[in-house]
Specification:
Largest sheet: 2 strands, parallel
Strand content: under 5%
Low-confidence stretches: none
């Protein structure tokens, strides 16, 4: 079964965009714990900064994937998408580590879901990158 490269990139971009969407909801909502949100007086500022960087990296990944879908970027730099997604994974995971708490609210769980979707997008990007070197993925639209 052959999978179109463009279709695989579109699916990866959609999953990455969903990850960014849940990440921004997790950033904006006030329920990281039972009593407080991420941006409160006396809260961990490191997790705030790490989560913002993770969101920006996810948005950058969507843009990069879009540029590959439109064939604006050359195929020789395909690995950049995987690198940016991997960095986004590191920053989302660092956000959790910086804010670990025994009692968490729904905002924390949204960020966990965003992290899961980011991993799925990374796996899809790695699959796309690996299959573009073989004949199992058609290089045409």
């Amino acid at each position: 079964m052959q999978i179109s490269e463009k279709l695989l990139l579109i699916i990866t971009a959609i999953v990455t965009a969903l990850s960014a969407f849940f990440c921004v909801i997790g950033l904006a909502t006030p329920r990281w714990s039972i009593a407080s949100g991420l941006f409160c007086a006396g809260c961990s500022t490191s997790s705030s900064g790490l989560s913002i960087i993770a969101f920006l990296l996810l948005v950058a990944s969507v843009v990069i994937l879009g540029l590959f879908i439109l064939r604006i970027l050359p195929p020789s730099i395909r690995i950049i998408c995987l690198i940016v997604l991997f960095l986004a994974n590191i920053f989302t995971l660092s956000t959790f580590a910086a804010y670990v708490n025994a009692i968490t609210g729904y905002s924390y769980k949204l960020m966990v879901f965003a992290h899961f979707l980011c991993y799925v997008a990374s796996i899809l990007a790695a699959f796309w990158l690996g299959t573009t070197y073989t004949t199992n993925v058609t290089q045409t639209n």
